[in-house]
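During the second year of the project, the team shifted from modelling isolated chains to modelling whole assemblies. The rationale, set out in the original proposal, was that interfaces cannot be judged from single-chain predictions alone. As a representative example for this report, we include one of the complexes processed in the last quarter. Its constituent sequences, exactly as entered into the pipeline, are reproduced here:
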Amino acid sequence: MFERLYKALYRIRLLEEELARVYPTDKIKSPIHLSIGQEAVSVGVCEALRPDDVVFGTYRGHALYLAKGGDMKAMVAELFGKATGCARGKGGSMHLISTEAGMMGASAVVGTTIANAVGYAYALRHQEKDSLVVAFFGDGASEEGVFAESLNFAALKQLPMLFVCENNGYAIHTPQERRQGRPDICARARAYGIPAERIEHNDVLYLFERARTMSAEIRAGGGPRFLEVMTYRWREHVGPNNDFRLGYRSEDEAAPWIDIDQVTRLESILAPERREQIQEEVEAEVEAALAFAEESPEPEPAELYTDVY
Amino acid sequence: MPQSVSTAVLQRPSRGTNGERSLSYVDAVREATDQEMTRDPSVLVFGLDVDDPKAIQGTTRRLLEKYGPRRVFGTPLSEDAMTGAAIGMALAGLRPIHVHIRMDFLMLAMNQLVNVAAKSRYMYGGKVSLPLVVRSMIGKSWGQGAQHSQGLYSFFMHVPGLKVVAPTTPYDAKGCLIAAIRDDNPVLYVEHRILHFQNGPVPASAYTVEPGRARITAEGQDVTLVGISQMQSDCLRARLYLEEVGIQAEVIDPIWLSPLDIDTISQSVEKTGRLLVVDNGWVCCGAAAEIATQVMERLQGHRPFRMRRMGFAPVTCPTAPNLEKLYYPDSRTIAAAARDLVEETKTGWMPCERPELQSFIFKGPF
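Output from the structure prediction step:
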């Protein structure tokens, strides 16, 4: 299990570091909202899911797409604006999808996909399937009306859903305490009758355990569950760099999160030879994905008009 | 129940009927939904009050009893999330019908409709389809006022990825709804409260009125009247007033506003040389502007023509009956505008009101 979790985390970390490295070359034709520092949230939850479970995410969606099993080559090609991209070069970094892996979409409008996830969960139950749906969203989304409306409907219909609030403390550059009268997001979920739990310190192992338990409860017909995971974004809101020079947050604030980096944590648990083996596999995969994206053709001009309907 | 339509003008023949059975618009909508729900278990109907005793003016009556609460359910007052949920259902392979008792309420659902429903197929590279029907109703008269009266379909015509239909007869109400349910794209299905009271021939079997086809509802050679939604009825009445002064108007019902059948309208204007588009909304940036511009683009340089748009007064809909009457075009003001267009002058003519051509009067309470 440690190996699986480590590999999943390291795939995301290494790919995103590589994306940040090549970003100045302008090969990536898309804004990128990097998950570096936050990988544990997607990985901890998705490792507890089944392939037929479904997730919806956000514009900061690289980690979720990869953690749920989305194809890395198709993702990088999408960022490069290539015809082989997961959305044929029409969605970009903010709208990753993999219907095969159960990553059913991501929105650039905060909170939007929470409701889509709720509807998908309604459909799964209507179709008498025992899969479940996970909605991933940020702390900012908890301020949107759609958040409250979605919790209410999920609770009302006791839908097979897990809500995962990825709380990195900031909506772009504005901290949570300057946006929320009572920054206790779990309390809001409980107000709708949904059992809710907060996971501190970006802890991938504990998150995985809790997600596994909650998934089983949901699948057993227990209705929706809610997880708030405290995490931290290391890089700027959008783009490949650090942003401490902006002054809205300090390196001192980031330091404890970097100290408890989950990639390093799991790395230290693994036997060195296994770790190196995994690293080599991932490095080869990342290299191949970037090469694939680079070599892939652009969409044909006629594609401008396809798939409107 | 208010009295039925006061005129036989609206009882115009519909094509493709196989029998003379007459249904109300409400029953046509109900029958279309019922037949599709029987045919396809993935069809669901939900929205505020679809399962209450009034059943959305009767359009969802007895569906709950027949199909059960999983397929027919009233929702919380959450237009935004319920639209998002409808999208999620469609992504999962269901064919939801989301019902709003007023079109004004769709403003609460704009993010999901415009940013997600319209775009999913394109921005996900064709990986998903989104079969979704959003029914809504435009209100009119008896003090519907500012927020129960708006015809906002042009908002949706603006957005690629959405289809928009505003059927005006029971025949088209049934055929368009079945077409919308079977369509793999999001369709805004726009009803009008006044049209609900109409009766007309409706075949008992299921049939579709396909997207992108307008209908010539009355032939003529002097002027083309395009009437959208309830204004279609007023255009047909205006045609009778125009006959008094020897003007033969051709009346066209676009039915589908997106995709729009501009061929049929252009061909008519090519014949008549005059176009009057009467919108069931405001004129500025409205459906009438789009229709007139597209006709212009087709005909300019080879067929000169004169045109005019009519629609709601550029104000918020008032509730005082005398002001409300001034707010809307009606059959007489339409006839007057059409005559001026034909005679290329301000004639000052206004037809004397004929009782048999009065619009249907809706009287409360609801």
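The interface with chain A takes residues 44, 70-71, 75-76, 78, 80-94, 96, 111-112, 115-116, 120-128, 160-161, 163, 184-185 of chain B (CB under 8 Å). Residues 215-344 of chain B form a domain with the Rossmann fold fold (CATH 3.40.50.920).
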